[in-house]
Amino acid sequence: MPTATEELNFTGKNLIRMADLTADEIRGLINTGLRFKEVSEREIKKVPALRGKTIVNLFFEPSTRTRTSFEIAGKRLSADVINISASASSISKGETFKDTILNISAMKPNAIVIRHSSPGAALIASQITDCSIINGGDGAHAHPTQALLDLMTIAEKKKNFENLNVTIVGDILHSRVARSNINALRSLNANITLCAPPTLMPPRSDVFGAKITTDIKKAVKGADVVMMLRIQQERMGQGLFPSLREYARYFCLTPEVMKETKDDVIIMHPGPINRGVEISSEVADGNKAVILYQVTHGVAMRMAVLYLICGGTKDE
Fold it and tell me: How far is CA 34 from CA 2, 12, 17, in A?
């Protein structure tokens, strides 16, 4: 794990997808996130690093953790934070996505955080505006800050990514979280196992460089990290599996399945959790789960991203 004294390697203007980052840049972001976690543990949870900067959170999809953590992150850095939802924007009056971005950009914010249902929305925004764009999740494509907070959690708990065994279980096909984590974990030389029904596994999954299985007990055996994914019914057609009950029978992480795991395994989930579908309450609330740590780290990592992208001062 990087130490607090290492050079901060990320100097990008935008954060669109994990595949754009080098291993050193990922480590630099993790390092910075761990430093900002200390700020969130203080009695006064605020530093002047982004005083005078403006952050716009532009969310076209519902969100609890991502939107709230970006808002808290910006305010803890002393930035001015503006939240805009699609229902409260001129999109509802027929304005195009392009014109929305151009109009917000004309107000000269330092960064726009975008959540959108269409893959590539953040990339398109970065091509038509001079302000920084941070991808808060675009369709089933990418969710880089979620991957970074996941990596930060793993780094704190496991210290080293080299040859770490990470198993990802669930709706791989529709998961931007899975894609972002796979890209990052490959860069950091972790071993990846993917487990899902064949209908929820992307075509040509072999390009991920991961082991593929449909047996959850085999998938979790020997894993250092097990990452469960939500069934994303809002992004899938019908007929990919018989029912949620049938899915849970074969792919839910239960105490019975947990008997196959290592004693020091950690259990992750990006949320929101569907209890009894992808993970049982006993496991989600158990001592091996680090799900709430992920939420805590979400604020610290998004502080790190905003700080580095918006050119924060070092006067903390």
Answer: 9, 19, 21
C-alpha distances (whole Å) from 240 to each of 82, 118, 121, 176, 270 are 39, 21, 26, 18, 22
Q: How far is CA 232 from CA 57, 104, 271, 274, 290, in A?
A: 23, 30, 11, 10, 21
- In this structure, CATH architecture of domain 144-294: 3-Layer(aba) Sandwich (3.40)
Residue range(s) occupied by CATH 3.40.50.1370 in the chain: 18-142+298-309, 144-294
Cα 124 from Cα 119, distance rounded (Å): 10
Select 18-142+298-309's CATH number: 3.30.365.10, 3.40.50.2000, 3.40.50.1370, 3.40.190.10.
Answer: 3.40.50.1370
Residue 279 DSSP symbol: B
CB–CB of 169/253 below 8 Å?
Answer: yes
| 8 Å CB contact between 189 and 163 | yes
Scan for tokens 């002047």, then name that residue.
48
Amino acid at 128: I
10-residue averages of pLDDT along the chain (316 residues): 50 94 95 94 94 96 93 98 83 86 97 96 97 96 97 96 97 94 96 95 80 97 97 62 86 98 97 94 98 97 97 62
Beta bridge partners of 211: 193
The pTM for the full model equals 0.92
